[in-house]
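Are you able to produce any protein sequence you like plus the matching backbone structure tokens because I've never seen that pairing?
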Amino acid sequence: MRIRTTVTAVLLLAATATACTGGGADPAGAEASRAQASTKALTLGSGRHWKDIDGDGSHISATTTAVSYTQPAKGVHLPTNLADFPDPEWAVLEVKTCADAASTNVIVAQSPWTLRLKDGTEVKPLGLRGYGVPAPTYPVSAGTVRPGSCLRGKITFGMAKGSRPDRIVYDVQRRPEVTWSVPRA
């Protein structure tokens, strides 16, 4: 009985993890799609619809949108040592995910989002919520978007002063990478 409970818990955990990463895509096909998708950057406010098979075999689909990008961002009050750069300039990305009505729950997080500089360097989100960052905050990990609903929030980044990304990247394992162009300041 104890072994069955442990195996069931492990399988449930694996199924939950694949809701974020996708489970049914062909890795070789995904690489080809990723290369093609990464060259065609969307404009801010445009969404990309995607669909996948969840770890338990159920249908999962949604539209993910990079809504806006602000740098330097007002309303960020954080210690400078939280960024990877000395004397950082704060940036805020607002994103939205809308689950299709026919989808199962969509699990969202900040981790698939990065900012890409022209030289290929990627800046990861700070992964913070609460005091010091603009609200509403996009879930740091494992936020749930129910079928037919949307979730919108802000993600905070620490950037080196004088640098500005040229791409916003949404990259979930085994799905094509999606990019948006960052307009000049």
